[in-house]
């Protein structure tokens, strides 16, 4: 097997020019789509992989996220696709639902100039009905997580008999998450003459063994990512829930001293929605996406350059190649899925040696994306908090002071207004200070200068250790998040061979819970008791009641009895971070995928799930 080691910059050997996508042998439809999205030259892994896959070779690629490997396998697959065939021709296995959706979006973007291409994401947590109806209509490309793909194979609803292309994306992550057995089973259930590409950031022995067993004389390619960000860009992030984003952005706009700003969102529809919300709050904002005409795009960019427009809400594609000196701030309203996009986005500021600011909104379940960006760029992001009302009012007062100071410097206009004020004071018997205040009211209009204070937070009463211990005895424990825990009953137990990690995975995935929301779990013969926040919303309870583990509805409902753990070999106790579960994996939002994908739909093989964990790994109950 040949091996090469190169950076992610375009390849340029001595005496040779940088290759273009047309040089790689791609067809016209794919090349037009690449031109539409602004791709000009292939990255190293694309330049090496695309000709091999077009030539029918199997490929073993060692590459980090952010090197462009999605396009490396998606483009040659699309170029060779037979759109008249209704059974799946290509299967891409991904470790998480987030990556599966990202790959699907990439396929759809690259297939924009092709007719009749149908791509289907398949992952746990999504209803079977949508997936089954799409499979019945006919699908060319399936992108899914191993757990849900296995479910469809077991049910006979996914036909891989005519599969021509198979891709294992981030194979080492799939092994870490306990998908090794599933991947082996899926590979064994596909045609032996298919073309296979395996991509992995590392090459452990198990990956090497899989490649030797299932790939046919693969060409090995090694690409090192050099994704870096400019040192003169200040990079910060804000932990925020999705409903808080608009208010958080508004307060940031109040306190940040920005000139021009680009706010990045993931979807075209969100660009205009957010721009309209900002205009309603008094900001000059406009939206650009891949759908707007070139003439309109040019007008909008010119308005941004001239200062008639201060905020541009854009997608990655629309902002590609945008270079405006006024851009002092970039806000990732939706954090990008891969580090390469992050680097491209924040590169819109801090250009030509100037300083810039980049602020990223991160929801709890997106902590993994934040970690991937920090690892790839080798630069930690600084956490910031949402500006308070006091912060906003202080900034407003400072700007008001500055406006008065500037006006005091215009002596000619001041002289004219002194006469007007003196006339009013003389004829209305009002002190000059009151006249100045009244003029401030007139200039301010209906918008108040200062915001009202936030309502005071209710402080929980402090209790001594003895009271806390007594609460524990009553089953009223508090997680680290501060919410009170209460016992809930679910109708699966030891007879269903349920394990604590399956319960956590299914509930975290379907209910939007995080690892701090779980207390003790007690598994009984016919049912289990699990501690969850006492104030779960009704809609969350309804979702959880319909959740299935091992094919059985759990029918979750509050349990009025005090928590009494029976201990034993299969239940009871609190979760710990320091011991990985058997066949377990790292406890970030991949766990939610694993837990829902396997724990929710194939209970006896489930995994520990969490939406917003860190890198400390899964937790097991104390026995």
Describe this structure in words.
Helices cover 39% and strands 15% of the residues. Strand 19 and strand 20 form a beta hairpin. The chain is globular. The model is unreliable at 1-16, 458-481 and 567-623 (pLDDT under 50).
From the structure above, extract its key features.
623 residues, alpha/beta, Rossmann fold, 4 domains, 8-stranded parallel sheet, 7-stranded parallel sheet, 22 helices, 39% helix, disordered C terminus, EC 3.6.4.13, DEAD_box_RNA_helicases, helicase, nucleotide-binding
Please write out the topology.
Layout: E1 5-6, H1 28-36, H2 44-54, E2 59-63, H3 69-79, E3 90-93, H4 97-110, E4 119-122, H5 128-137, E5 141-144, H6 146-155, E6 165-168, H7 171-176, H8 180-188, E7 195-200, H9 205-214, E8 219-223, E9 233-239, H10 245-255, E10 260-264, H11 268-280, E11 285-288, H12 294-306, E12 311-314, H13 316-319, E13 327-332, H14 339-346, E14 356-362, H15 367-377, E15 382-384, H16 389-408, H17 411-428, H18 432-444, H19 465-473, E16 485-490, H20 500-511, E17 521-523, E18 528-533, H21 538-545, E19 548-549, E20 552-553, E21 557-558, H22 590-600
Parallel strand pairs: 1-8, 2-7, 2-8, 3-5, 3-6, 4-5, 6-7, 9-14, 9-15, 10-12, 10-13, 11-12, 13-14
Antiparallel strand pairs: 16-18, 16-21, 17-18, 19-20
EC number: 3.6.4.13
Motif (Q motif): 19-47
Keywords: ATP-binding, Cytoplasm, Helicase, Hydrolase, Nucleotide-binding, RNA-binding, Stress response
């Amino acid at each position: 097997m040949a091996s090469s080691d190169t950076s992610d910059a375009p390849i340029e050997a001595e005496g040779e020019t940088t290759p273009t996508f047309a040089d790689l042998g791609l067809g016209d439809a794919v090349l037009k789509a690449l031109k539409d999205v602004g791709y000009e030259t292939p990255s190293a892994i694309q330049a090496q992989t695309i000709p091999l896959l077009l030539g029918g070779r199997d490929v073993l690629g060692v590459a980090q996220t952010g090197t462009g490997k999605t396009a490396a396998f998606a483009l040659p697959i699309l170029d060779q696709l037979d759109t008249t065939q209704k059974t799946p021709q290509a299967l891409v296995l991904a470790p998480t639902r987030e990556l599966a959706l990202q790959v699907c979006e990439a396929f759809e973007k690259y297939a924009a100039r092709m007719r009749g291409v149908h791509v289907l994401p398949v992952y746990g947590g999504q209803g079977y009905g949508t997936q089954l109806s799409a499979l019945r209509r006919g699908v060319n490309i399936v992108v899914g997580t191993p757990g849900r793909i296995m479910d469809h194979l077991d049910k006979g609803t996914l036909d891989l008999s005519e599969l021509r292309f198979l891709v294992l994306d981030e194979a080492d992550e799939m092994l870490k998450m306990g998908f090794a057995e599933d991947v082996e089973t899926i590979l064994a259930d596909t045609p032996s003459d298919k073309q296979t590409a395996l991509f992995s950031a590392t090459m452990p022995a198990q990956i090497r063994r899989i490649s030797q067993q299932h790939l046919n004389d693969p060409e090995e390619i090694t690409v090192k990512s050099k994704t870096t960000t400019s040192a003169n860009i200040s990079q910060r992030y804000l932990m925020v829930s999705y409903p808080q984003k608009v208010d958080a952005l508004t307060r940031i706009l109040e306190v940040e001293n920005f000139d021009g700003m680009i706010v990045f969102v993931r979807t075209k529809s969100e660009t205009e929605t957010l721009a309209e919300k900002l205009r309603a709050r008094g900001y000059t904002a406009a939206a650009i996406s891949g759908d707007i005409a070139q003439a309109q795009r040019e007008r909008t960019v010119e308005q941004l350059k001239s200062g008639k427009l201060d905020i541009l809400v854009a997608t990655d594609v629309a902002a590609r190649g945008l270079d405006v000196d006024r851009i002092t701030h970039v806000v990732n309203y939706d954090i990008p899925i891969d580090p390469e996009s992050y680097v491209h986005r924040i590169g819109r500021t801090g250009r030509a040696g100037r300083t810039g600011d980049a602020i990223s909104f991160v929801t709890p379940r997106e902590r993994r994306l934040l970690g991937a960006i920090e690892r790839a760029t080798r630069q930690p992001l600084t956490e910031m908090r949402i500006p308070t009302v006091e912060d906003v009012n202080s900034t407003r007062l400072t700007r008001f002071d500055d406006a008065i100071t500037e006006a005091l410097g215009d002596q000619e206009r001041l002289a004219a207004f002194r006469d007007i004020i003196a006339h009013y004071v003389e004829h209305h018997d009002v002190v000059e200070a009151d006249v100045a205040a009244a003029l401030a009211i007139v200039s301010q209009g209906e918008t108040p200068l200062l915001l009202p204070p936030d309502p005071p937070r209710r402080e929980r009463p402090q209790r001594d250790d003895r009271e806390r211990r007594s609460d524990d005895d009553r089953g009223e424990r508090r997680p680290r998040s501060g919410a009170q825990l209460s016992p809930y009953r679910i109708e699966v137990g030891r007879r269903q061979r349920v394990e604590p990690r399956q319960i956590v995975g299914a509930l975290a995935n379907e209910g939007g819970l995080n690892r701090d929301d779980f207390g003790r779990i007690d598994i009984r013969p016919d049912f289990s008791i699990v501690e969850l926040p006492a104030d779960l919303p009704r809609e969350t309870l309804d979702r959880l009641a319909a959740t299935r583990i091992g094919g059985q509805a759990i029918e979750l409902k509050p349990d009025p009895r005090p928590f009494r753990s029976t201990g034993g070999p299969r239940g009871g106790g609190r979760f710990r971070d320091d011991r990985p579960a058997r066949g377990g994996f790292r406890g970030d939002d991949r766990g939610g995928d694993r837990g829902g994908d396997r724990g929710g739909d194939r209970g006896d093989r489930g995994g520990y799930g969490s939406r917003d964990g860190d890198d400390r790994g899964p937790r097991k109950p104390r026995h």
